[in-house]
Write a structure and sequence with these properties.
mainly alpha; 9 helices; elongated; disordered N terminus
Length: 260
C-alpha cells in the first residue's frame, strides 16, 4: 500500500511539473536545440509584424498611385508623409482598442472563474478531476491531482483558465506595448518607400521607391518565415507578391486617372 501511494504521489508530482512547466514557462530550454520560447502573447509581436508589413504595402501603393498620376514630386512627398502619419496613428489606436477590449473580456472571464473557485470549491474540484480524467488520467489519481491543485487557489485558477478559456491569466495582452509596436513599425515600413521623394526631384524616384519597397518586403517576409520557422523564402515571395500586387494596381489606377 505504501509503495502504491508513493507511486501515485510521484506520478502526480511529475504530471503537475511537466504540465505546468509546458503551459506556463516562457524561457524553457529544448533538449534538441539551443533556443527559448518567445513571449509573444502581449500582442506586440503580431502588431509589429502587421504594422511594418502594412506600412510598406500601404505607403508604397499610396505613393505609386500618386506618382502614376504624375502630379509632381512635391505632391507625392506630401501624400506619402500624410499617409505615414495618419496610418501610424490609425494602426496604433486600432491595436490599443482591440487588445484592450480583448484583455478586458478575458480578465472578466478569469474573474468569474476566480469567484467560482472561492464560492464553489468542491464543484470546481470535481470539474478539474473531470478534465484530468478526460486526458486519460486514472480516476483515483485525477481526484488526488484535483484536490492538490485546489489547495493553491492561484494554481487552480491558472489551470481552470488554461483548460476552459485557453489563456494564462497573467498573459492576457498589453494594449500599450501593442499600440507602440504598431505605431513604430508602421512608421518604419511607410517611411521606406518615401525615402527617394525626400530628395530633389529626379526621373528615377518611382523606380527607387519600387526597389526599396520590394527589397524591404522580401526582408520582412523572410523575417516572418524565420520567426515562424515556416520557410524564409516562401514568406519572402508571399510578402513580395502582395506588395507588388497592391502597388501595381494603385499605380495603374493613378496613371489612368491622371491621363484624364
Amino acid at each position: 500500500m505504501t509503495t502504491r501511494k508513493l507511486s501515485c504521489s510521484t506520478l502526480g508530482v511529475a504530471y503537475l511539473l511537466t504540465d505546468v512547466a509546458h503551459s506556463y514557462t516562457r524561457d524553457m530550454d529544448h533538449t534538441d536545440k539551443d533556443e527559448h520560447h518567445r513571449q509573444i502573447t502581449d500582442g506586440w509581436f503580431r502588431a509589429g509584424i502587421f504594422g511594418i508589413s502594412d506600412g510598406l504595402v500601404t505607403n508604397a501603393s499610396f505613393i505609386l498611385g500618386f506618382a502614376g498620376a504624375n502630379p509632381g514630386a512635391n505632391v507625392v512627398r506630401l501624400a506619402g508623409l500624410s499617409a505615414l502619419v495618419a496610418g501610424a496613428f490609425s494602426m496604433a489606436s486600432g491595436e490599443f482598442l482591440s487588445v484592450q477590449a480583448q484583455k478586458e473580456l478575458l480578465d472578466y472571464e478569469v474573474e468569474v472563474e476566480r469567484r467560482a473557485i472561492a464560492e464553489h470549491p468542491e464543484l470546481e474540484r470535481q470539474e478539474l478531476a473531470a478534465l484530468f480524467r478526460a486526458r486519460g488520467i486514472e480516476e483515483d489519481l485525477a481526484e488526488r491531482l484535483a484536490t492538490d491543485l485546489m489547495r493553491d487557489p492561484d494554481l487552480a485558477l491558472r489551470t481552470h483558465a488554461r483548460e476552459e478559456l485557453g489563456v494564462d491569466p497573467s498573459a492576457t495582452g498589453n494594449p500599450l506595448s501593442a499600440a507602440s509596436s504598431s505605431f513604430v513599425c508602421f512608421s518604419i515600413g511607410a517611411f521606406i518607400p518615401l525615402i527617394p521623394w525626400l530628395f530633389p526631384a529626379h526621373s528615377s524616384q518611382v523606380w527607387w521607391s519600387v526597389g526599396l519597397a520590394g527589397v524591404s518586403s522580401a526582408l520582412v517576409g523572410a523575417g516572418i518565415g524565420w520567426f515562424s520557422r515556416r520557410g524564409m523564402v516562401r514568406w519572402a515571395v508571399r510578402q513580395l507578391f502582395f506588395t507588388a500586387l497592391a502597388a501595381g494596381v494603385t499605380f495603374g489606377v493613378g496613371r489612368l486617372v491622371g491621363a484624364h
